[in-house]
Amino acid sequence: MLLTTHTFITADGVMQAPGGPDEDRDGDFGYGGWMAPWADEVFGEVVDGWFAKTTQLLYGRTTYDVMASYWPLVTDADNAVATVLNNAPKHVVSRTMTRQGAPWQNTVSVFGDDVVDRVRALKSSGDGELQVHGSWQLIQTLTQAGLVDEYRIIQFPTVVGPGKRLFGDTTPASSFEVCDVRTTTLGAIAMSLRPIPFRSATHEVVDGKDTVVE
After folding, report:
1. Which residues lie closer than 8 Å to 80 by C-beta, 6 or more apart?
2. CATH of the domain at 6
3. Into how many domains does the chain fold?
4. Quick check: pTM over 0.70?
5. Which of 12, 107, 140, 199 could share a disulfide with 102, CB 3.0–4.6 Å?
6. Cα(28)–Cα(202) distance, rounded to whole angstroms?
């Protein structure tokens, strides 16, 4: 399976607590819910497209708890996102929860040790997409291990200052192949990025012309 991550970020790169004030106050974060004012029809189309590709879901514990408290309550049969979230097989990274104690239907595995090896095994277990939504700490682990095949990001025209960033100081250097870009009516930018080796270049004057030289 391809491993894809799906993240809402601010213009300054923060992914913390996009959906509500109390979603994640870690570090005294005071701007939870920053994404909601920017959701529009195009945003919905992009997100629906993400979930249409879902085969299985992988969560960190915090994001799992947030989503498990909300999405099972959405019983509207026409809500494509809720249908996928509630019915797709789910895996959770947690050292304190057991599968028997998992509150969300179709949670098929819970593991807290050997995370990289367990995720690598999941990727090798079949076709389709193993999708990560939110799950900041888990994404850091997967990025460090080079396990992410594609980052799907929607960046919104707002800044919040300090917070948990998708790409931070410890992120390995990388460049990306941009395989899809779309702009919403309210100015958010949806991007699909596939990691490639880091690239650099410089400017030189060649025959009197400003030239990029790799």
Report:
1. 48, 51, 52
2. 3.40.430.10
3. 1
4. yes
5. 107
6. 41
